[in-house]
Amino acid sequence: MDMNTIEAVVPTTDPAEWRDGDAWLAGGTVLFSYGSFAFGPRPLKRLLDLGSAGWTPVTVTDDGFDLAATCTISQLYSLPGSPAVAGRSWPGLDLVRPCCDSFVASFKVWNTSTVGGNLCTSLPAGPIISLSAGLDGIATIIGPGGTSRTVPAADFVTGDARNCLAPGELLRSVHLPASALASRAAFRRLSLSNLGRSGVLLIGRLDGGTSLVLTITAATKRPVQLRFDGLPDADGLADAISAAIPEDLYHDDIHGLPVWRRDMTYRLAEEIRAELAAPDGAPGLRVSGDFWPPKDSGLAAQQEGA
């Protein structure tokens, strides 16, 4: 944890406080581990601390739910079992816990890492990026002078560790709409090891019971979302993926070579298509990989009791 260049920690949520050499601090699990030179050749001088923001972590309405940027992963994980969503016909809620599990993190990270931090770090494998994009999330961004704008979560991340935020702008929240939450959904994830970072993570939705929305993350440097008027056949789906993802968009790091990520993208996409093509409630299909879903390690039970 190399943060020995920090001269001040400023409690604030006001983008007008921003100046060169600042970084917004939410949970800090990435910021503290990356150090003072995490965001460029010049060291950080100040941390603008959101810890005292007091934002409500999760707000549920008939229109969906809003996640504050400071919502922790453990708070998000508890949502599907909470009274706030009891009785709501939102199959998309079934995506929340698999995405949280995709952190493959300790309870310390779960209770510190935030929704906003995961989005703003903008790594290809960020599971909150996957969840937000897969459920047609809308990010609210605030800037100096009281300005505010919204961006589709699928467009928020623009590349590996790159996003649409201008200097000083702050991610305030992400709205996940009821229209997407009401859709039947399917989830697929692969990693090279049991406790490894996601190499491929795909989310599929069947909007209106007929239209496929497929969101590809982790395999690519930024989210790629495909929309179909109906449910395509296998060849049509493969052709659409080929047209949407050039070879150089597949991510390349120690967690998976581009060719493997590409091949697994096609494989998992077809599994999602076949699952959603089957009648709702049909026996589940065999899922690729030996490592997912994770075996119960007691962590889920700890989170339920938190």
State the strand order across the main sheet: 4-5-10-6-7
N/C terminus separation:
28 Å
Q: Secondary-structure element order, as H and E?
A: EEHEEEHHHHHEEHEEEHEEEEHHH
What number is the mean pLDDT?
Answer: 90
By DSSP (H or I, 4+ residues per run), the number of helices equals 11
In what range is the share of β-strand residues? 15-25%
Query: Ranges with pLDDT <50 over ≥5 residues?
Result: 296-306
Biggest sheet details:
5 strands, antiparallel
Helix content: 25-40%
Question: Which shape, going by the Cα principal axes?
Answer: globular
Number of strands: 14
How many whole angstroms does the radius of gyration measure?
19 Å
The structure class reads: alpha+beta
What do you see in this structure?
With 306 residues, the protein is α+β, with helices and mostly antiparallel strands. It has eleven helices and 14 strands. The strands form four sheets. It has a five-stranded antiparallel β-sheet.
Mind sketching the topology for me?
Elements: E1 8-11, E2 22-25, H1 31-34, E3 46-49, E4 58-61, E5 64-68, H2 73-77, H3 96-101, H4 107-110, H5 115-121, H6 127-134, E6 138-142, E7 148-152, H7 153-156, E8 157-159, E9 162-163, E10 170-177, H8 178-181, E11 184-190, E12 200-207, E13 211-217, E14 224-227, H9 234-244, H10 258-277, H11 299-305
Parallel strand pairs: 1-3, 2-3
Antiparallel strand pairs: 4-5, 5-10, 6-7, 6-10, 8-9, 11-12, 12-13, 13-14
